[in-house]
Design goal:
The protein has helices at about 5-30, 45-55, 80-95, 150-160; strands at about 40-45, 60-65, 75, 100-105, 110-120, 165-170, 175-185. It has about 190 residues and is α+β, with helices and mostly antiparallel strands. A five-stranded mixed beta sheet has the order 2-4-5-7-6. The chain starts with a helix and ends in a 5-residue tail after the last strand.
Length: about 190
């Protein structure tokens, strides 16, 4: 291989290491006992717009389901942390999807819920509990193409817990995996 290819490969290795370090630092920060959730009443339409824009050119079709006809729905949450959680769920879904990912948000009287579904191969039911463990990778054939460090879903689980909520995985209506992040509609405690 030529010098240009060698430098490109080295640059890619460095970028991969930087991504790993950043992800590990994010996980470590969220695992500190003094982490506080910055609860804010967050208008969903504006908050969801960031995901519509970010995935507009993605080769996988990412649909962000509308919330309310008048765009007035709002949720009590830390918009930054939930943004990290949703970004991680979308990255994970796009990595495994065949062609389609759907993000939806719903609110009821006492809880809020974010669901990310894909049309990929899904997850074996026996692995549902394991998928949220840090550094757990169900796909042991990790390479540059498949990516992943086993932290994305552990970070989502930690953010759910910080909000007093839960994250669950199931079979999606699209055929792949469905991740449901649910938390109380108001600040716990």
């Amino acid at each position: 291989i030529g010098l240009d290819e060698e430098f490109a490969s080295m640059r890619q290795d460095v970028e991969e290491i930087e991504t790993l370090i950043g992800t590990m630092l994010d996980y470590a920060r969220l695992d500190q006992p003094d982490v506080k959730v910055d609860w804010q009443q967050t208008p969903l339409e504006g908050w969801l717009a960031q995901f519509r824009q970010k995935y507009a050119a993605d080769p996988i079709t990412v649909t962000v389901a509308p919330i309310a006809a008048d765009g007035s729905a709002a949720v009590e949450m830390d918009p930054y942390l939930m943004g990290v959680a949703v970004s991680n769920l979308l990255v994970n879904a796009c990595r495994h999807a065949a062609s389609e990912v759907v993000l939806s948000v719903s609110c009821s009287g006492n809880s809020s819920c974010i669901v990310v579904e894909d049309d990929g191969p899904g997850i074996n039911e026996a692995d549902y509990a394991e998928v949220f463990r840090a550094f757990k990778r169900l796909d042991t054939t990790r390479n540059r193409a498949t990516g992943g460090y086993g932290l994305v879903l552990a970070i989502v689980a930690r953010i759910a817990a910080l909000h007093g909520g839960t994250i669950e995985v199931a079979r999606a209506a699209l055929g792949g995996a469905s991740f449901m992040l649910e938390w109380p509609s108001s600040e716990p405690g």
